[in-house]
UniProtKB/TrEMBL annotation:
Coiled coil: none annotated. This is Fibronectin type-III domain-containing protein. PROSITE patterns: FN3. Pfam families: fn3. Residues 34-124, 129-252 form the Fibronectin type-III domain. It comes from the Eukaryota. Keywords: Repeat. InterPro entries: FN3_dom (IPR003961), FN3_sf (IPR036116), Ig-like_fold (IPR013783), Striated_Muscle_Regulatory (IPR050964).
Amino acid sequence: VKINQYSFYFLNLKSFKLINSIINSFNLFLVPGQPAGLTAKVLDSHRIQLTWDKPLHSYNIIGYSIHFNASTGSTRELTLTIPVEKHIIDGLIPDTFYSFRVAARSARGTGAFCTDITVKTHPNVPTISPKIIVLRALSSQSLFIRWKMPLLDYRSGKIRSYLIRWRPVLAKNETDQHKIWQSDEDDEELLSGKGEKKEKRWLEMIQDASLDNSAIIRGLNPYTIYEVSVAAGTEMGYGIGSEPEQVQTEEDGWYCVICMHAFDNLKSLII
């Protein structure tokens, strides 16, 4: 007996064989229909949120099955044991295409899957930092820095810019003991009880990755030791900074004149 879905029939039953055939046909209609309106929202490089609507005929739904394929060739299927129309898929691979489809489940079985939807996870932030290969003083107020681009995993995305950071220190390697130079304003805050002793804040500049992998840091103090670090950035943000390197700016011209004058005075006293 051929029966059309969602139609009413008035039957004159004459045998048990006919009754069993009709019951089996109606059991097929107790399987849920297709979910509708499937959408996928990329949350970050490892998570995608799926939302969908209940099937038009959603009687006795007990959960859903989510099937998805990755452009890497892997395939997975998840089973939701409660009838919720939202789920976050995590543990995904960065910068990878995923295709999703959803089917409703009832006590009678699993219905048809809805139409696939495909999205791509975000690339990851760089997990490897650039390497500083040159750091030297150009003058009493400027430094020259050159770095080597990190070798990134292809899923980290394209480097778009570099973040260059610097701050003054008391002496070489003293940042290991957290002895960071502080300004007079910082000292006043400590004496007044308004502030806590913290490391000198980093100053920073951003350089486009399309330019040369070098930069000049300007506006520094004469005869001062600075530590400098560089981080690579993609459209998702900046990765870890390089190990800080230290260098000292040159002496100011006036500083040299004062030193020479003091030396001459000391020499005359000795004579």
